[in-house]
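Fold this sequence, please.
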Amino acid sequence: MVHISGLLISLALSVTCVFAQVPRTVSYQGFVTDSYMKPLTGQHHLEVRLYDVTTGGAALHTEEFDADFDNGVFSVALGTNLPLSASLAFDKQYWLGISVDNGGELIPRTRMHAVPYALRSSYAESVSTTAAVTSMNTVTGAVILQGGGGTAVNQNGNIITISSTGGGGGTGVQGLQNLDGSISIANPNGPTTSVSIAAGGVTTAKIADGAVTSAKLAPGVLGSAQIADGSVGTAKLSDNAVTGAKIADGSIGTQELADGSVTNPKLAANAVSTSKIADGAVTTSQIADGSVTAAKLAPGVLNSAQVGDGSITTAKLADGAVTSAKLAAGAIGTLHIADGSVTLAKLSTAGASSGYVLTYNGSAAVWAAPPNGISSPSSSSFSTSSTIISLTNTGSGDVIDANASSGNAIDASNSSATEPTIYATNTNSSPTAPVIRAGGVDGDVMTVTRQGDLTIDGHLVVGATLGPSATPDAGGLYRDNILYGWGYISSTGSVLSSSSFGITCSRVSTGVYDITYNRSFSSSTKGVPVITVADAANVLFSGVANLTNTGCRVLIYRLDLAQQLFIGQDANFTIQITGRP
């Protein structure tokens, strides 16, 4: 659709006054451009109307033309396709309206001037000879018509023609001139003149402020050179117009980022390092459930305030962690004491005397003299072929437990018997205590006076202790560095070898195993665990923690070279427990 942005109109309206017949036509010439200020060319449809009002009202005459345009200029003659009505007397002011290619009528309408009113002379045809004008301007008789300026008077027989050809010499428009080159003028001296805008004639000074709207700009006409620095503000940018390719590297600083705009999906893996996190910025809501592992806790970081009531279960307590100081008075009841765990050392000696035994008097357990049996001290001499003393213990305890601080705890002599002076045996297939245990500070623990060898079938626990600077006698037997237990442990914590003894094992977590001794040391410093671990695929390291007199914790690690970290690793291992009882 053609949009008419402007219209320059040049009217060449002429009336030929003849006494025989007056042609009723009006010449109309104009200049038209499209919406991009480009002059129209080729053929276009025009609709021309005559009004007696400047706006509104009904058209007094409407006529259509298919006019040819040459560089925006067209020319038509009203009354050619549709004769002008006789009611158009041209005795008052008229206006012309025009529409192009069935578009709306251009505004404002064009005011018609004096020349068309020469049509008024057509009324002279109706004047009879008796009503003829006999004088003009008080001149009577023969009157000579003479043209002035660009107006000529010609006579052909009884026909007088008055016409205006333009040019100099008159009082009207004698010619058109353009002093600044902005207008192109065709035939400037008339009678018909075409005026158009010269190429390049519309300069910056000719354009009113705000006159160039968006509709006047052709697509793609604005380049970088046409946009002033800093003129593209936020309001000028359409939503999503700024893509990643438009943003220069490093141009997004802190002040360009809206608060809360950097969400988790925007962060690359491992992008947030320690230095990027402000002190105190990681609150409870930022920590995922289960993300704080043991390795993340600094030593001593957990105190009573961090431990919830009832949260310390059995599994949380390390072996040997509950010491006497941790137990409240009266906290240990019957249900808490395991069968066989109360040894003699655990019994109070209050009320006891030498030779007393613990006995039940019908209402309570008390210390009292034995009603029968062997009292201490005792010394007897016998001559018999029978066994002097025969003691049998079907349980797991010692048959004879003798201890003396001065003198011999047991002194047995046999000078002629063919049987052993002391014969002790334990029929338990898995003994946990010696058949005879003898200990003393001063004097012989055990003296063998019979000539010959001392035969030992099983384990012999000797009560003498070798000090750090003492030198053992040649052929002497001492209890230091006795093997207490040995085992081959699987990665799941099971004791694999049937020849393992003296220990049990449980797996706590990856690479963490708890070892429990079947026999306790007198203190946590007297047992020495030795760990051997190997793996075909990894270089493994082992360590010992939580060393107590009843067990220890074995830790197995592998070195992760990529992360430069020691990481827990399940593996098979062997353990040997040696030391003093």
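Residues 374-479 form one domain. Confidence is low (pLDDT under 50) at residues 1-20, 449-453, 461-479.
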